[in-house]
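This section describes the prediction task in plain terms. A model, or a person checking by hand, is given the sequence of a single protein chain and must write out its three-dimensional structure as a string of tokens. No templates, partner chains or ligands are provided. The sample shown here is typical of the held-out split.
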Amino acid sequence: MCLSSKAARLSTRAARRPIRAARRSLPAALLAGCTAALLLQPASTASASPLAPAAERRDFPGGGSTVSLPLADSGHRLAPRVTRPFELLGVAWDGPAAAMAGATVRVRTRDAATGRWGDWHALEADTEDGPDRAPRGATAPLWTGRSDGVAAEVVPGPAGPPPGLRLDLVDPGSGAGIGTGAATETRTLPAAPADGGRAPRPAIVTRAGWGADESLRDPGSEYTGPVRAVFVHHTATATDYACSDAPRLIRSIHQYHVKTSGWRDIGYNFLVDRCGTVYEGRAGGVDRPVHGAHTLGFNTDSAGVAAIGTYVGDTPPQPLLDGLAALAAWKLGLTGQAADDHTELTSTSDASRYPEGTVVDFDTISGHRDAFATECPGAALYARLPELRAAAAWLQTQ
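The expected answer:
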């Protein structure tokens, strides 16, 4: 699953400096047709204007929060104002994801450190990933870095604006359990040697290690059959981030997937940062076939792993590739699946690249684009999948 395929090319440096996007505004006719608009501008004084009275803020036990700002009909505007700090955003609505098919959604944010406004970013309105039966609609989220102001414009598709259209601003907080002195071994599963001819398990940062707020997720876990394929994604976020910031980004995605999109937990089974660190994603046991929400139509009998960053044009760092290969070799090896082999999976959704019920032959390590019409995991990372398969297969023989 990817944050936003349209925003992927634009958000490379968003987490550490003002967002840069293509310097081209929408035509005047398009702007005139905006059915919903939220315009928040920098405050002219040191004291920021409060959030609009209609805004709803939800605080969570783990320290994170989400502010929902309604996007009303017929060009409704909020008075110019800044917002409480946030680091990720997205647009959500009541009803099915298809309700926003053909819509145009774009946002811009204000950098909290510099006070400068970035350019406009397009959000992917047609959701390209997630559970096979999504409870409600939401765009792919956009990681903005620390921001304190936002603007958004929505042009609905042919079906018109769906009810409950809103902009969610996510603050990941400091993380549940982080900095409390919990023993290091409870936060990271150390690397383990090969067992019974399988590839060794890489070190994996647990959910406690990245500060997951366990009160957010569904307390139960669902499982599929044995994992026969690993789907590689990218998160379409900054590639030049400090790896120490990865837990904040993961907490933001977790919060958005659960509280905004209505999923039972974070969608990915695993994530890997640019330094090669592997993180546990969806809860239920890293060595078990937890049913994720990452590759629409093919979440069954598979695992989804997300490379943190945008790899459309940026070269994936070697440590990232090494981490992906080590994880895939071990995870597939748990069920005796060769990392350089093929397997058959059955589509469970017409919204995927293949109609429901179609039996599809996949590489055991495939890209998200192999199952859905998306550029994820980015052309640069997708081009490295053959060598990643070879590296993972070699690890399975050691």
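For orientation: Residues 28-171 form one domain.
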